[in-house]
Write a structure and sequence with these properties.
Helices cover 36% and strands 22% of the residues. The chain has five domains: 129 residues, Rossmann fold; 157 residues, Orthogonal Bundle (Topoisomerase I, domain 2); 138 residues, Distorted Sandwich (Topoisomerase I, domain 3), CATH 2.70.20.10; 129 residues, Topoisomerase I, domain 4 (Orthogonal Bundle), CATH 1.10.290; 119 residues, no CATH class. The longest helix has 35 residues. Strands 9-10-16-15-12-17 form a six-stranded antiparallel beta barrel. It has a four-stranded parallel sheet with strand order 2-1-7-8, sandwiched between helices. It has a four-stranded antiparallel sheet with strand order 23-24-25-26, covered by helices on one side. By secondary structure, it is an alpha+beta fold.
């Protein structure tokens, strides 16, 4: 018997079918160990020794692997074919080795790029050892991220109250968004004009032209700066004779783009399908792990985390065959296209993202996929096929038309057009763009010859205004990070999620906008740790990590070089007072937090007292603007305060979204007592109109008639359960999205899943829920704070049904509203535990009821009314006493802990 370890249960199920009964395939469910979330997990003074801790959820999975290994002779580690996958295999191996389970066991590492019978069989025939270079690159990256987070975040908390965390790549990505916002705020709009002409040939064919030259000098875009100048040019050309000076046609070829890598897939799915990067990767994961096709689970695409653009030779051959069969020989290039990888690290330059079987057309598998999965598979299939198709042949034509103005000056107008002579790959696929496509493709010019007249039909000045650079979308930010060399494929989605979860940025109309909290953190880091948020520095560090995985440099040497300078920078600001930090931020963020008044006065003059200076202040709820004359002057305002436009949804009439085509009733958006909801029609008599709540976290700008009708159509029937033949439905409930079968409910990961989840996945989720006896999964450990300083035993922050809470023994203490689990310290937790214990009258600190005394029991058995009264009094006293003692003991614990110089902090 051979034990095979993969990452996900879906993959384990598929691979087990391929390998047969001689193999036991088990899932690790991702990483099984991590650095404990406390100070000292990475120790620079001990040559960067690292302490690892088995994840609480992973313990059972490791036990399952250990049990299976006891009756097996061989272990195959088959985790994903990237650095993270290599690290997971290493962690599993280390845990099993520490348990003494690898004696007389043969251990192999295999990696496959696709979950198909042939790919897995080939991998099993060609095993290798754990790649130490990739593991060391992982260790270096993990150590760097930990050291930056656990060293820099506490500095933020002390010097900039309200800030949550900083991260090595996270902070640089945030800076990109903040820098773009500064560009937008500094942007000064500029007026400019163009001269547009409607013309026709002597044969009467119309075309458009634009003024481009005056007296042989090419005009800059902004050269005509006012309407008066533009009108003078129009007047000078009115009723003048125009002649075609030259006609130039040039052939051009447009080549297809290479197949997808991780970043280009995320960008294109955002532009063409409107998917977030997180949703794209979730769908790609499911396509990779496999779907049920004809009773067999089949992986539809190759591995989705890759920097490589190359394809296997058999895939290229298959693509050319599909092209010839579907489009004809003219669309097959004479020789196959081979793309050069852009990956900086050859060891991680895996094959591009492509269908595992290119003959499997999108329409042939759509029935087995959720709608969004089908759309993503189609996008991947088209891009892959197009990458091997013939180039498009285009003819670009430029016509220059000249005239002598009434002012004696020579004017030249230009008409441009582009005609596709052979569409090539464009017949199947054209890459999307973030901005509007202003190309000339498809605009044909009529036949013209040099020297012939051109008649002016209309000439008009057109006013324009320059526009600021656009805010980043997820797609454009990923592209910018890729250009700068910041982050890697597996990190983009996590970075974007972290920035939003921390409240550093928000997403409006698919654009990333920095929140004031994010701008404060960025300004602080630029002011005091500028080197560590510089783009070149971060990109260079990423380059060094790639060199580690190539085996070119020593990973601990990289850590030593980084740590020496970094810790010096941190220590250099230890003595800075908060007031010094705030004054520095006043200067950096001045134009944003102190906008220039309309009267041109001092932007920092207090509008209340008139002689105080406005400045950043910090308080319990973060930063705000206050007067220097406090407490005499109590003027304050929040950052970002201004005239907020009230949403129409908050009005009694609501905001009309559109009309339901089936009923003809209005669909209206309301902002009610419990949040946003949509309503179909209006109330008639006692009959209430149909309503549906908007899922939590949905931006109001994203709520349109399409989304409203989807919500009003719920619950959605996913299909009939294959065993009971009873319907499975998907809907939103009090605790979020779910699927239901009979009386069994199973939670869904994302609101989008309500509309996209398929029958197979729904059945799987319901089966997992039933296997737990219908219980909800146990609370996830969000943060391990370490041992209780006086009482002993672990103190943890867990996720609960009603939010995060602290668990110590049997005491559960709810986190105060607004408190973030990541920012909680052991001292704060001990105080909350003490308060909870003090409030738990009649209970010991362990949560157990205090047993009644024998005297109380005797009083309870008496029939005398007075005795009963005495019993009540004595019982209350007996309960109050231990509760009071518990509260005092816990309070003493909190006091003791507070006096200690604990350094336990959280990672970013």
């Amino acid at each position: 018997m051979t034990v095979v370890v993969v990452e996900s249960p879906a993959k384990a199920k598929t691979i087990n079918k391929y390998l047969g009964s001689d193999y036991t395939v088990l899932a690790s469910f991702g990483h099984v160990r991590d650095l404990p979330a406390k100070d000292g997990s990475v120790r620079p003074d001990e040559d960067f020794a690292m302490s690892w801790e088995v994840d609480a959820k992973a313990k059972k999975r490791l036990d399952d692997i250990a049990r299976a290994l006891k009756v097996s002779s061989k272990l195959i580690l088959a985790t994903d074919p990237d650095r993270e996958g290599e690290a997971i295999s290493w962690h599993v191996l280390e845990v099993l080795r520490n348990k003494g389970l690898l004696k007389d066991k043969h251990v192999e590492r295999v990696a496959f790029n696709a979950i198909t019978q042939s790919a897995i069989s080939e991998a099993i025939r060609n095993p290798r050892k754990i790649d130490d270079d990739l593991v060391e690159a992982y260790l270096a990256r993990r150590a760097l991220d930990y050291l930056v987070g656990f060293t820099l975040s506490p500095v933020l908390w002390r010097k900039l109250p309200g800030a949550r965390s900083a991260g090595r790549v996270q902070s640089v990505s945030l800076r990109l968004i903040c820098d773009r916002e500064i560009e937008i705020e500094r942007f000064k709009q500029q007026e400019y004009w163009s001269i547009e002409a409607a013309m026709r040939t002597k044969a009467g064919a119309p075309f458009d032209a634009r003024l481009v030259e005056i007296d042989g000098r090419r005009l800059d875009r902004l050269e005509i700066g006012d309407g008066g100048t533009a009108q003078k040019i129009v007047d000078a050309l009115r009723d003048r004779a125009f002649t075609v000076r030259s006609v130039e046609s040039k052939p051009a070829r447009r080549h297809p783009q290479p197949p997808f890598i991780t970043s280009t897939l995320q960008q294109e799915a955002s532009r063409k399908l409107g998917f977030s990067s997180k949703h794209t990767m979730q769908l790609a994961q499911r396509l990779y792990e496999g779907v049920d096709l004809g009773g067999e689970s089949v992986g539809l695409i190759t591995y989705m985390r890759t920097d490589g653009v190359q394809m296997a030779e058999e895939a290229i051959t298959a693509a050319r065959a599909v092209i010839e069969k579907g489009f004809g020989k003219a669309y097959v290039p004479a020789s196959p296209r081979r793309y050069t990888t852009k990956a900086r690290n050859a060891q991680e330059a895996h094959e591009a993202i492509r269908p595992t079987d290119l003959a499997r057309r999108p329409e042939s598998v759509a029935h087995a996929l959720d709608p969004d999965m089908a759309r993503l598979y189609e996008l991947i299939w088209k891009r892959t096929i197009a990458s091997q198709m013939e180039s498009a042949e285009i003819e670009r034509t430029t016509v220059d038309i000249s005239a002598k103005g009434s002012d004696g000056r020579d004017y030249s107008l230009r008409a441009t057009g582009s005609v596709i002579r052979f569409d090539g790959f464009l017949t199947l696929y054209q890459e999307g763009r973030d901005d509007e496509d202003d190309s000339e493709d498809g605009r044909r010019l009529p036949p013209m010859n040099a020297g012939e007249p051109a008649e002016l039909v209309k000439l008009a000045p057109v006013q324009h205004f320059t526009e600021p650079p656009p805010r980043y979308t997820e797609a454009s930010l990923i592209r910018k990070m890729e250009e700068l060399g910041i982050g890697r494929p597996s990190t983009y989605t996590a970075i974007l999620s972290t920035l939003r979860d921390r409240g550093y940025v928000k997403l409006e109309k698919k654009r990333l906008i920095p929140e004031d909290k994010g701008r404060l953190v960025t300004a602080f880091l630029e002011g005091f740790f500028r080197r560590y948020v510089e783009y070149d520095f971060t990109a260079n560090l990423e380059e060094q990590l790639d060199r580690i995985s190539n085996g070119d440099i020593d990973w601990k040497a990289v850590l030593r070089d980084f740590w020496t300078d970094f810790i010096s920078a941190v220590e250099s600001i230890q003595d800075l007072r908060v007031s010094d930090v705030l004054e520095e931020l006043n200067e950096i963020l001045g134009p944003h937090i102190f906008p220039q008044p309309a009267d041109g006065g001092d932007p920092r003059q207090c509008p209340n007292c008139g002689n105080g200076r406005l400045s950043l202040k910090t308080g319990k709820f973060g930063a705000f603007i206050g007067c220097s004359n406090y407490p005499e002057c109590r003027y304050t305002r929040q950052l970002g305060d201004g005239e907020q436009e009230k949403s129409p949804a908050a009005s009694p009439e609501g905001q009309l979204l559109g009309v339901d085509p089936d009923t003809g009733l209005n669909v209206t958006l309301f902002d009610g007592r419990f949040g946003l909801y949509v309503q179909l029609g209006t109330a008639e008599g006692k009959e209430k109109p149909k309503r549906a709540s908007i899922p939590k976290g949905t931006p109001i700008e994203d709520i349109d008639i399409e989304l409203a009708l989807k919500l009003l159509s719920l619950p959605r029937e996913v299909g009939l359960h294959p065993e009971t033949k009873q319907p499975i439905t998907a809907n939103f409930g009090r605790f979020g999205p779910f699927v239901k079968h009979g009386t069994t409910y199973a939670n869904l990961e994302s609101p989008e899943d309500v509309f996209t989840i398929g029958l197979n996945r729904a059945v799987s989720l319901l089966a997992e829920k039933e296997a737990r006896g219908g219980r909800r999964p146990g609370g996830e450990v969000l943060k391990d704070l370490g041992e209780h300083p006086t009482g002993g035993g672990p103190v943890q922050v867990l996720s609960g049904r009603y939010g995060p809470y602290i668990k110590y023994g049997k005491i559960n203490a709810t986190l105060p509203k607004g408190t973030e689990p990541d920012a909680l310290t052991i001292e704060e937790a001990v105080e909350l535990i003490a308060k909870k214990a003090g409030d738990g009258a009649g209970k010991t600190p362990n949560g157990k009821a205090k047993p009644k005394s024998a005297k109380s029991k005797a009083a309870a058995s008496s029939d005398d009314k007075a005795a009963g009264k005495a019993k009540s009094t004595r019982t209350s006293a007996a309960k109050a006493k231990p509760a009071k003692q518990a509260g005092q003991a816990a309070a003493a614990t909190a006091s003791t802990a507070k006096s200690r110089s604990s350094k336990k902090v959280d990672a970013p």
